[in-house]
C-alpha cells in the first residue's frame, strides 16, 4: 500500500509561527501608533454625559488637549494647550480653528480634553479662542468608564493636596 | 516494521501550545483597554452679549470657585450660599429640575473663576446632565 509522503505529511509549524510573530509585530506597531496621545492628561469622571466610544468620534472633530503636567509628571504653572503633539498658543489655536472652519464650515464639533487638575484659566483661553472664532458650542470631555487609570487619580489628588 | 516518520506522523502539539500561551500572556500584559469617554456639551456665549440671559425662564446661576483650604477642590456658590457638590446635586434635583417642566431647556449659567480646578467644572456639568439640564452656558470671570 505504498503511500506517497505528500498524502500524510508531517505538518511543519515553523512558517506558521513565523507568520504569527509577523502579525504580532504588525499589530503592536499599529496599535501604539494609533494611541499616540498625551498620556499625562487624566480626565475627570462624568458618568452622566453623552457616551462616546473611541469609534464614535466624528471624523471632522477637533480635539484640543490641555495638560497640567509635563511628560515627567511635574505640575506646570500654566496648563499646556496642544493638538496632536503640537503645543499651541492662543493665536495658533485660533489659526487652527480658522483652518477647520474654512474646510468644514461652522458646525464641526470641538472636544476639549482637559486634565482634571488644570486651572479654569487655561480652559477659558481655549473657550475664548473658539468663541472669538464664532464657535459657541463645544464639548468638554470626561470619562464615562475608567479602564486605564482606576484609582491612580485619587492617589494623585492626595499627593497634590499635600504640596 | 520500520516506518518512516513521515508516513503516519503524530502531530506534536506541545510547541504550539507553548506559543499560544506566550501569545495569551503577551496580549494580556500589553493590551491596554481604552477608556470610554463621555462628552458634556456647553455653550460659550459671546463675551459682549448678556442678552441671552434675560430670555424666557429665569436662569439658574451657579458660581464655581476654588476651595480656600484645598486648591484641588472646587466650591460652588448658589444665591450667595457656598455649597459642596452633594448639596449642589440636591439643589439641582429638587429646586431646578424638580420645578421645571422642561429641564432640558432651563438655562443654567455657570460662572467659573480663573483659579478653580477644571475638575470642579466637569463635576458640576456632570451633575447637570444627571438631571437632564442640557442648556448649559459657561462664563469665565
What would a concise description of this structure say?
By secondary structure, chain A is of the alpha/beta class. Chain A has 4 helices and 6 strands. A 5-stranded mixed sheet of chain A has the order 4-3-2-5-6.
What can you tell me about this protein's structure?
The complex is a heterodimer of chains A (163) and B (141). In chain A, α2 (90-104) crosses α3 (120-132). With 163 residues, chain A is an alpha/beta fold. Chain A has helices at residues 14-34, 90-104, 120-132, 152-162; strands at 50-52, 62-69, 75-83, 86-87, 110-114, 137-145. The radius of gyration of chain A is 23 Å and the shape is elongated. The longest helix of chain A has 21 residues, at 14-34. In chain A, strands 4-3-2-5-6 form a 5-stranded mixed beta sheet. Chain A has 4 helices and 6 strands, in the order αββββαβαβα. Chain B has 141 residues and is α/β, with parallel strands linked by helices. Chain B has a domain at 57-140: Nucleotidyltransferase, domain 5. Helix content of chain B is 30%, strand content 23%. Chain B contains 3 helices and 6 strands, in the order αββββαβαβ. In chain B, strands 4-3-2-5-6 form a 5-stranded mixed beta sheet, covered by helices on one side. In chain B, β5, α3 and β6 form a beta-alpha-beta unit. In chain B, α2 (85-97) runs parallel beside α3. Chain B is elongated. The model of chain B is unreliable at 50-54 (pLDDT under 50). Chains A and B meet through α1, β1, α3, β6 and α4 of A and α1, β1 and α3 of B. β6 (137-145) of chain A pairs antiparallel with β1 of chain B.
Amino acid at each position: 500500500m505504498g503511500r506517497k509522503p505528500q498524502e500524510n505529511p508531517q505538518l511543519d509549524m515553523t512558517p506558521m509561527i513565523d507568520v504569527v510573530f509577523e502579525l504580532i509585530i504588525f499589530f503592536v506597531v499599529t496599535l501604539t501608533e494609533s494611541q499616540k496621545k498625551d498620556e499625562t492628561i487624566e480626565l475627570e469622571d462624568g458618568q452622566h454625559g453623552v457616551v462616546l466610544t473611541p469609534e464614535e468620534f466624528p471624523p471632522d472633530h477637533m480635539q484640543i488637549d490641555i495638560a497640567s503636567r509635563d511628560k515627567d509628571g511635574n505640575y506646570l504653572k500654566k496648563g499646556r494647550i496642544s493638538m496632536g503633539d503640537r503645543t499651541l498658543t492662543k493665536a495658533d489655536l485660533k489659526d487652527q480653528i480658522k483652518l477647520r472652519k474654512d474646510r468644514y464650515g461652522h458646525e464641526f464639533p470641538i472636544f476639549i480634553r482637559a486634565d482634571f487638575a488644570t486651572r479654569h484659566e487655561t480652559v477659558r483661553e481655549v473657550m475664548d479662542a473658539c468663541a472669538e472664532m464664532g464657535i459657541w458650542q463645544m464639548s468638554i470631555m470626561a470619562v464615562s468608564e475608567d479602564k486605564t487609570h482606576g484609582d491612580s487619580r485619587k492617589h494623585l489628588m492626595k499627593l497634590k493636596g499635600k504640596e | 516494521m520500520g516506518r518512516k516518520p513521515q508516513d503516519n506522523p503524530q502531530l506534536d502539539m506541545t510547541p504550539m501550545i507553548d506559543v499560544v500561551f506566550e501569545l495569551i500572556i503577551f496580549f494580556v500584559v500589553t493590551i491596554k483597554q481604552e477608556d470610554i469617554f463621555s462628552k458634556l456639551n456647553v455653550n460659550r456665549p459671546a463675551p459682549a452679549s448678556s442678552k441671552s440671559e434675560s430670555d424666557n425662564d429665569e436662569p439658574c446661576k451657579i458660581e464655581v470657585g476654588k476651595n480656600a483650604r484645598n486648591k484641588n477642590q472646587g466650591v460652588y456658590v448658589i444665591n450667595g450660599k457656598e455649597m459642596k457638590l452633594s448639596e449642589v446635586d440636591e439643589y439641582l434635583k429638587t429646586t431646578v429640575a424638580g420645578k421645571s417642566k422642561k429641564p432640558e431647556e432651563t438655562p443654567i449659567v455657570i460662572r467659573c473663576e480663573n483659579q478653580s480646578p477644571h475638575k470642579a467644572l466637569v463635576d458640576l456639568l456632570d451633575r447637570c446632565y444627571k438631571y437632564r439640564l442640557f442648556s448649559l452656558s459657561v462664563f469665565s470671570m
